[in-house]
Amino acid sequence: MLQILGVVLLLAVCLMVCVRLRYPTILSDANFILTQLRRQHTLSRYAKMAIPFTIVDRFEEHAAQTPERAMLIFEDKTYSYDDINRRANRIARMAQRLGFKRGDKVALFVGNEPAFIWTLLGFCKLGVTCALLNVNLRSKSLLHCFEISGASTLVTSSGDGSSKHVDDIRPELKQRSVSVWTLDPGFPLPSEITDDDTNLPRGVRNGLNIRDAFAYIYTSGTTGLPKATRLTHFKLLAGGFMLDSFQMTCDDVMYITLPLYHISALFIGLSNVINNGATCVLRRKFSASKFWIDCRKHNVTMFMYIGELFRYLIAQPKTDKDRVNNVRLAIGNGLGADIWQEVCDRFDIDRIVELYGATEANFGLMNVDNTVGSVGRWSPLLQAICKIELIQYDYETSQPIRDEQGRCIPVAPGETGLLICPINRIFPLEGYVGSKALTETKLVRNVRRDGDVFFNTGDLFVRDANFNLFFKDRIGDTFRWKGENVATTEVAQTLNELPEILEASVYGVTVPGHYGKAGMTAIALKDGEVFNPRATYKHVTSSLPNYACPRFVRVSARLEHTATFKQKKTQLVQEGFNVQVVSDPVFVCDQNAQTYVRVDEQIYANILNGNIRL
Question: What are the CA-CA distances from residue 456 to residues 228, 344, 362, 393, 399 (Å)?
Fold first, then answer.
């Protein structure tokens, strides 16, 4: 009997060794899945409560249990959990007195400042959905984003200057009977403000569903104007658990320089701070020269990044204090593999967690292993739960390639493929606000069998033999610059407003030393017209956010089209702004001179070596 037992144990050990050799990360993957299942159980329990438990309930718990703990540090002023909660309560009670109730919408046109946080939480206490408008929006884009939110009130701030951009559309808002609130930088004081700063009873949110929208987040797509997506209470709470995998506690200090109206800073940064009762150090805008000074001053242990942030940091002069910090984790997306190790070594960062996700997506990836350049590993165990696919893609038709049976064709490890994710009960897709047609454009049907539906990320990836995924590029007409998605249709429409332009084709081009792609446009002029560099610069900068303004302009005699009159961009992208191969005049944006200047051999060389900033 003992001999049989010994043989069984030996076989079991051999099996385990074989599995570990074939699948070395199986134990960590299993632990990751068990952690997610525990969180899912907690979220399911929150959802089943008579009035669902939300991020506001978590915040109020911390305000009651640790009222004096620092929740927010902004421009050297510290706000405790009790401070923020009392201000949020005053907003909530004022809004309630003005008739706001669960299910209503309000638009926030506010940048990174304390008022953003307590105003957002205040409305959430009533179950009101906040549409978070990008403060870089101007004129028609701003009005469009406000209108699709369904809100009748627009909240802006004099603290970040956004109120002056609201003035540009005030006549249109007045025609629509829109109420505009302007927040004071110190504290919001509309005429109806109340002195009552106690918590509202949870009953005011009676009828709230955890799948209701906490906020609308806007994203740029290939169709031009921004679109709104729903960030539900459930998804925000789930985001608040993400950093538990890295032992985040109430003692951590999170540094946020990214805009709170974007998904990353809100869904990952602020939600994890609130969920753990931690501290947030908030800055209006990223500053490379002040970054590590702030980190040392406020004992920062975690911060959020986009790829450009690290490139700006390593471009700063080296000092003997570069490694003097308490940062143990950096989390974000867009860190290039070419500078990954340099960042870790120079600034002594223990762990970098590269992410992948999209505002409207139904899933995301997270690099938990410190694998250089990877956005995460999707192992066989995870595939058993959610079978994502990398499929072949036709760049000419902008459609997945299908086999004789009409099924999508997977790519092999090492090959580039389009990433798609199944839509089901566990991974639902919220879709765009108010537009089923726009949501339909993000779907791929009948991928593996009749009736299945997948979300099209619009992004190309490569998977290695160890199931690590590496981001390669974006497809379609959207490209990424300065941490923002740029919709080429919107930029082209803006350029076409100039009377001398017959047609504009907009695309992204690679610039050495820069993450993402810089905007470039090829324009064809009407007969007898000439290109006006200064007038073009003035028009685009007054109509578009800075990140969307074309950095290069190519003046062509005509633009090439397909048989179906689609613009041909492949050759334009390949030639870029290289004056050695482009015979057309090429101009580069000069923000100091406020015009476009002709690119010659010397300017071209200066762009390549980084002497000219874009």
Answer: 17, 33, 10, 11, 10
3-state helix, strand, coil in the chain (%, to 5): 35, 25, 40
In three-state secondary structure terms, 331 is strand
| Pairing status of strand 453-463 against strand 468-474 | antiparallel
| pLDDT for 397 | 74
What are all long-range contacts of 506-512, with beta carbons under 8 Å and residues at least 24 apart? 506/477, 506/550, 507/477, 507/479, 507/569, 507/572, 507/573, 508/479, 508/480, 508/481, 508/573, 509/552, 509/573, 509/576, 509/577, 510/576, 511/551, 511/607, 511/614, 512/608, 512/610
Kindly state the tokens that stand for 207: 């009828």
The Cα diameter of the chain in Å comes to 99
Estimate to the nearest angstrom the gap between the alpha carbon of 329 and the chain centroid: 19
**Contact criterion met (CB below 8 Å) for 422 and 445:** no
Q: Which amino acid is at 586?
A: V
pLDDT of residue 490: 81
Distances (CA, A) of 227 to 84, 432, 435, 483: 30, 7, 9, 17
Q: Using CA atoms, how far apart are residues 233 and 101, in angstroms rounded to an integer?
A: 16
Distance CA 6, CA 184 (A): 76
User: What does the pLDDT look like over 69-105, one tens digit per residue?
Assistant: 999 999 999 999 999 999 999 999 999 999 999 999 9
Q: Alpha carbon 198 to chain centroid distance?
A: 34
% of the chain beyond a pLDDT of 70: 92
Minimal CA–CA distance to 442: which of 417, 470, 411, 475?
Answer: 475
Q: Is 209 helix (H, G, I), strand (E, B) or coil?
A: coil
Q: Which of 446, 435, 442, 458 is nearest to 407 (CA)?
A: 446
Cα-based torsion angle of the residue sequence 553, 559, 564, 570 in order, rounded to the nearest 10 degrees: -60
Quick count: other Cβ atoms within 10 Å of Cβ 464?
Answer: 14
DSSP 428: -
Alpha-carbon separation of residue 442 from 361, 470, 598 (angstroms): 9, 21, 39
Q: What is the pLDDT of residues 298-334, one digit of tens each?
A: 999 999 998 778 888 988 899 999 999 999 999 998 8
State the pairing for strand pair 77-80/153-157. Answer: unpaired
DSSP code of residue 136: T
Burial class (CB in 10 A: 0-12, 13-18, 19+), 372: middle
